[in-house]
Amino acid sequence: MLTKYLSSLIAKAAENIKTIVLPEGEDERVLKAAHIIAQANAARLIIFGQEDKISAYFSENGWNMNNIEVLKPENSPRLKEYTDLLYNLRKEKGMTYEQAEQTARDYTYFGTLMVKAGHADGMVSGANHSTADTVRPALQIIKSARKDRSVSSFLIMISNDTPYLFSDCGVVINPNEKELADIALTAAETAIQFDIEPKVAMLSFSTRGSGKGETVDKVRNATALAQHALKSPEYQGLGIEIDGEMQADAALDKVVAKKKAPDSHVAGSARVLIFPNIEAGNIGYKLLQRLGGCEAYGPMLQGLNAPINDLSRGAFAEDIAGVIAITCLQATHQHK
Ligand SMILES: CC(C)(COP(=O)(O)OP(=O)(O)OC[C@H]1O[C@@H](n2cnc3c(N)ncnc32)[C@H](O)[C@@H]1OP(=O)(O)O)[C@@H](O)C(=O)NCCC(=O)NCCS
Q1: Which of the listed residues 136, 304, 309, 312 should we mutate to test ligand 1's pocket, taking the one with most ligand atoms within 8 A of CB?
Q2: Which of 5, 121, 256, 279 is disulfide-compatible with 249, CB 3.0–4.6 A?
Q3: Which domain covers residue 207, as residue numbers?
């Protein structure tokens, strides 16, 4: 069953067709997700795997393969081109041509190289690979969109039909003040892409000095850095508001916000929640998903030159379809 939010993402993706690589064609959940997206004409998909097996699976289910191409990287006429590309990108980091030849055959690297070469707009992988294995090629090959800023991740969490954006629950393990400020700014930009109001709360166990310690100082200083950055011309007119440090109840509950941070424009109505480190973020979103009944999409990467997204290994086909649609929308914004 597709949820309301997922259906809306798919419909939006269909407005501007993108090409997305799915390297994990051996996984039934990926094939089901591909069917959901392809039959809605929401994207063109390139699936890696054995064509006869994949087309047999589709015909057993009575599905057609419109909008779907299957390829086997090791037989691709582009293997040499991608090997050269990889070698040229990584030789200064010590990669030999022989290593490039081997690495380019790895499906995650091959897919990432397709995106780098402009033969696809984005990639979704990770149903059977760790986050680090999916994310590392993207960091090495696609790289940060801005040299001065880290790549991080976000989730879209749906609670009672309202979307929230959480960051960073998946990449930067223990951000310093500057990295935390960057995460807040990038997350605000991502929120705008997904029509989520960019009201950003910098979360802590403290609200406005109620708690003390190094971690509170980190969040408070990161907030100041992000607020300062908002004064630059690139952020004018976007309506981004960032405030902190504050607890999650002060961020989300108007009554608590009135008591703890009465002068804040963000407290009580935050839609973007920035966690002080990956532990708080990762544990927080999984608790909400498992005990709080929230739908969770992600973690997806933000701040890359082209969208590459990781899947949770526990993802259902519908979750994967959601991440594909989100990747299409990121690709659309990337080329604006
Ligand atoms: C993302 C992650 C894999 C990168 O770490 P790593 O593999 O050790 O990467 P390295 O430090 O070797 O860096 C590899 C490249 O990526 C770059 N890089 C690493 N983190 C980056 C970031 N956040 N933004 C931009 N570039 C980054 C490095 O500069 C390096 O580039 P170079 O090789 O061109 O010089 C690591 O941060 C990680 O494991 N994060 C947690 C993932 C996770 O388990 N999440 C929980 C489940 S959702």
Answers
A1: 136
A2: 256
A3: 145-303
